[in-house]
User: What shape does this take?
Amino acid sequence: MTNTIPRLVSIPLRVGELIFAAVVAGLTGEYLHNYDKANVFPQKRFIYTEVVAGLSILFSLLWLIPFSAGFIHYPIDFVLFVLWIVAFGLLVDYIGPLNCGSVFAWGSTFGKGTCQKWKANVAFAFLSAIFWLISALVVRAFSLNFLEDMLISFQGLWFVHRARRGHGAVTDHSTK
Assistant: This one.
């Protein structure tokens, strides 16, 4: 039961991380593709965002594999959260000078214009960061329970071992 609940919560989070990373990779990739046509070197922030999206796609796919539930992977989840927050900040910093209005005015996010694409990119980068943070917290909570259970089991085995050797509290001192 202890393993089932975090796994059930983790699966939709991983799927969300995968989708959000794919959207950011697609939007940023389109921008990089347009840079390629112009024979201009793209800004580093977009390459960084594309790498973070690629890493997120890789790890979300790996963590969706059933046998990976036994791994303690919350440190990677937290690192990806930090990487996404940095990407979010870099994208917000870029969109500011584009004269698109407030970065956080999401009413005009849907559409085909440049401002709408970048606002969507910023929004999905932020959502991805939040999902990685929640995943890290869920997996961390589970791993602490898992480690506690292992420690209790080990202590129980140690007690039984000591009792069988006659060194523990469960020895019979009656005389025959």
